[in-house]
């Protein structure tokens, strides 16, 4: 049964991929009977499951508006937002200063954090169904392609209780321009001094070692890890949970080994000191004792002024709902609900949109 | 039957000069045929020109370094496709080896009186149906059926013969071996169908003559029939190879998408076509130019393969079929 469903969803994914290749637009849209107003968005795959769920739930609250969201990756999300081909963009990496400079001043931009998430390292080692612990130096070296086999002495040392097979480590990374990649490379550069200078570097697309398997989207990474023995890959927590992949426990700045979860995620978000006016907060290496080390907010990119006031109102109402009721759903799905002070700031920013 | 005959006979035009209408029809047909042939050339030239125009900045900037470079790093603007060229040629050659042997064997089996003629037609139809299966299905089949099947064997080969470069790594999942096998199945219908036609074209008297000279069945097949059909069989192989070079979807799903050069049959690799397919939707201006350059490289490889195939074909025609 499980096999059947995974085959069916793989088929669906492949069909969606085909659509992308053909330049089509496999939009996922919430259905509604009265479809007067259509609001279209595109961007990050990291929060896509949450946004989809929100659209379903919100369709029950307000039937007069239909939202659609395409998970095309953060890079394309920003690109399409700048082109004006969507009503809102979405990205796990907030827009950089150079990207902000490209925004048409007549439109303006508001970046609103909608939720936060953890990037996890999921693995597939036959005979190790759970419990892999990776120290800070170790997981940076693994992703940089410097550790060859799972029974490496350093991995064995961190995991005295596990019997690790002599199996090649296969890293699975993102090929597309990805906010998830930005988040994890930004973190790795903090913990590994060589990462930026001689390693892959920081960015939405970086120079992964040649032996890494490069695939498309968070879902692609999760699926590839699932079918590859000895694989380890980074993805949003939600995607690893969906496929029931084992997740590595990582060492944080305080030196503790932490599992991803709602509490460790919130502890990480709580470690941010100041929230700047443009709401662009990164937490490359959160300090708290229980903080999960790789977390990020994920942003929606909205016009400051919409030509169609009805659209602006619909978006404001829906996002206000997302910041209130939506946060409970986010927590259920494995995302981290926003801290109260961030919700306050986000609502202020939402209020500025006209 | 009789009526037709009478009608033809009474029309009286059977020996007359062609009418104006017949002249017109002839001219019309000639011009349509000529235009069609010409249009094909124009179309190919246009595609080449268009790709070349888009690729021009990249060609100017990266030159030959593009073909020998091994990294594809968009943020630093470094583009090299040597791993993809290697992966394309390696996977296609493996596929040609496997698919070619099986394809020709099938053709011999179906044409050299091993089975009943009707049964042979059924077999042939079944093999040709393979060509109708979408490549996504082949990809999924590879992931869920072929890879788990290959794993134990690959593990054994790696454990006991790991010193041999072909088995130098373990098969962890997607990789060269499943990709090449699926590719072999995909080119099988092409190779088999055209080879069958090549064998069917040999006049029956050739075989009778061979038997008449006292050859055994296998001598007749290997020393007479196969050389006589060789130009057609070669054409089948060249077509199959071309198909393997350009195959995209199944390979993108199965080959592992890793930009490395490895002799091992079990390592992940990448191909030019899957690089193109997977990077285009996201590409910015500079990357599109680099991708167009990669497309030109793929076209050049296909062209060279076709030319080499033609040359070998000419050679065999001269050697085995005695024509000039």
How are the elements arranged and paired?
The complex is a heterodimer of chains A (354) and B (324).
Chain A: H1 2-21, E1 28-29, E2 37-43, H2 48-61, E3 65-71, H3 74-83, E4 88-91, H4 97-101, E5 109-124, E6 133-134, H5 136-143, H6 153-158, E7 170-174, H7 179-191, H8 194-197, E8 213-215, H9 217-227, E9 231-236, H10 237-242, E10 249-251, E11 257-258, H11 262-270, E12 295-303, H12 309-323, H13 325-333, H14 340-352
Chain B: H1 2-10, H2 20-62, H3 65-68, E1 72-73, E2 78-79, H4 82-111, H5 117-130, H6 135-161, H7 176-200, H8 204-212, H9 217-246, H10 249-254, H11 272-279, H12 285-320
Antiparallel strand pairs in B: 1-2
GO molecular function (chain A): phosphate ion binding
Subunit structure (chain A): The complex is composed of two ATP-binding proteins (PstB), two transmembrane proteins (PstC and PstA) and a solute-binding protein (PstS).
Protein name (chain A): Phosphate-binding protein PstS
CATH superfamily of the largest domain in chain A: Periplasmic binding protein-like II
DSSP summary: helix tally of chain B: 12
What is the C-level CATH assignment of chain B?
Mainly Alpha
Fraction of helical residues of chain A: 40-55%
Count of distinct strands of chain A: 12
* Rg from alpha-carbon coordinates of chain B: 25 Å
Tally of structural domains of chain A = 2
Number of helices of chain A: 14
Q: How far apart, in Å, are the first and last alpha carbons of chain A?
A: 50 Å
> Which H/E pattern describes the elements of chain B?
HHHEEHHHHHHHHH
Instruction: Fill in the CATH topology of chain B.
Output: MetI-like fold
By CATH, the architecture of chain B is named Orthogonal Bundle
Primary descriptors:
heterodimer; A: alpha/beta; D-Maltodextrin-Binding Protein, domain 2; 2 domains; 9-stranded mixed β-sheet; B: 324 residues; mainly alpha; globular; membrane (chain B); transport (chain B); phosphate transmembrane transporter activity (chain B)
């Amino acid at each position: 049964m499980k096999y059947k469903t995974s085959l069916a969803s793989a088929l669906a994914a492949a069909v969606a991929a085909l659509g992308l290749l053909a330049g089509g637009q496999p939009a996922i849209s919430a259905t509604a009977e009265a479809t007067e107003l259509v609001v279209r968005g595109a961007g990050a795959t990291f929060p896509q499951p949450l946004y989809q769920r929100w659209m379903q739930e919100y369709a029950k609250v307000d039937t007069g508006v239909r939202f659609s969201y395409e998970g095309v990756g953060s890079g394309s999300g920003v690109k399409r937002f700048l082109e004006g081909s969507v009503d809102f963009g979405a990205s796990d990496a907030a827009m950089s200063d150079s990207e902000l400079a490209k925004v048409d001043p007549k439109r303006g931009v508001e970046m609103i954090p909608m939720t936060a998430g953890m990037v996890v390292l999921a693995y597939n080692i036959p005979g190790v169904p759970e419990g892999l612990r990776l120290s800070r130096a170790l997981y940076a070296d693994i992703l940089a392609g410097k550790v060859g086999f799972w029974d490496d002495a350093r991995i064995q040392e961190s995991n005295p209780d596990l019997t690790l097979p002599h199996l090649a480590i296969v890293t699975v990374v993102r090929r597309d321009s990805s906010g998830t990649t930005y988040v994890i490379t930004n973190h790795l550069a903090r913990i590994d001094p060589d990462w930026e200078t001689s390693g892959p570097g920081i960015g939405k697309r970086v120079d992964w070692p040649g032996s890494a398997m490069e695939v498309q989207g968070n879902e692609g990474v999760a699926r590839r890890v699932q079918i590859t023995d000895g694989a380890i890959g980074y993805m949003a927590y939600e995607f690893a949970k969906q496929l029931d992949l084992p997740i590595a426990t990582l060492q944080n700045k305080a030196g503790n080994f932490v599992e991803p979860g709602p509490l460790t995620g919130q502890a990480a978000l709580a470690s941010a000191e100041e929230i700047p006016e443009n709401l662009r907060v990164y937490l490359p290496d959160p300090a708290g004792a229980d903080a999960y080390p790789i977390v990020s907010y994920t942003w929606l990119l909205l016009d400051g002024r919409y030509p169609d006031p009805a659209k602006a109102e619909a978006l404001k109402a829906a996002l206000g709902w997302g910041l209130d009721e939506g946060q409970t759903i986010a927590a259920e799905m494995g995302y981290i609900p926003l801290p109260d002070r961030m919700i306050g700031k986000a609502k202020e920013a939402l209020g500025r949109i006209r | 039957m009789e009526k037709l005959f009478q009608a033809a006979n009474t029309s009286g035009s059977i020996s007359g000069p062609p009418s104006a209408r017949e002249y017109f029809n002839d001219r019309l047909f000639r011009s349509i045929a000529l235009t069609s042939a010409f249009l094909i050339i124009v179309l190919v030239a246009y595609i080449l020109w268009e790709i070349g125009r888009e690729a021009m900045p990249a060609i100017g900037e990266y030159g030959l370094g593009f073909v020998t470079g091994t990294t594809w790093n968009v943020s630093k603007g470094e583009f090299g496709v040597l791993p993809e060229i290697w992966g394309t040629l390696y996977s296609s050659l493996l596929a040609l080896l496997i698919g070619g042997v099986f394809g020709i064997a099938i053709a011999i089996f179906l044409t050299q009186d091993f089975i009943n003629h009707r049964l042979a037609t059924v077999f042939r139809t079944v093999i040709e149906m393979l060509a109708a299966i979408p490549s996504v299905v082949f990809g999924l089949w590879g992931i869920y059926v072929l890879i788990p099947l290959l794993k134990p064997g690959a593990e054994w080969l790696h454990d006991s013969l790991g010193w041999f470069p072909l088995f130098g790594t373990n098969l962890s999942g997607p990789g060269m071996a499943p990709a090449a096998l699926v590719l072999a199945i995909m080119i099988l219908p092409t190779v088999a169908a055209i080879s069958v036609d090549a064998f069917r074209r040999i006049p029956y008297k050739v075989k009778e003559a061979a038997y008449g000279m006292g050859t055994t069945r296998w001598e007749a097949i290997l020393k007479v029939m196969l050389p006589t059909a060789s130009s057609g069989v070669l054409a089948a192989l060249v077509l199959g190879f071309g198909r393997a070079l350009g195959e995209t979807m199944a390979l993108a799903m199965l080959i592992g998408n890793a930009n490395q050069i490895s002799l091992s049959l079990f390592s992940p690799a990448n191909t030019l076509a899957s690089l193109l397919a997977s990077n285009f939707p996201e590409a910015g201006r500079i990357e599109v130019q680099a991708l167009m350059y990669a497309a030109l490289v793929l076209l050049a490889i296909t062209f060279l393969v076709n030319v080499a195939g033609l040359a070998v074909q000419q050679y065999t025609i001269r050697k085995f079929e005695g024509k000039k």
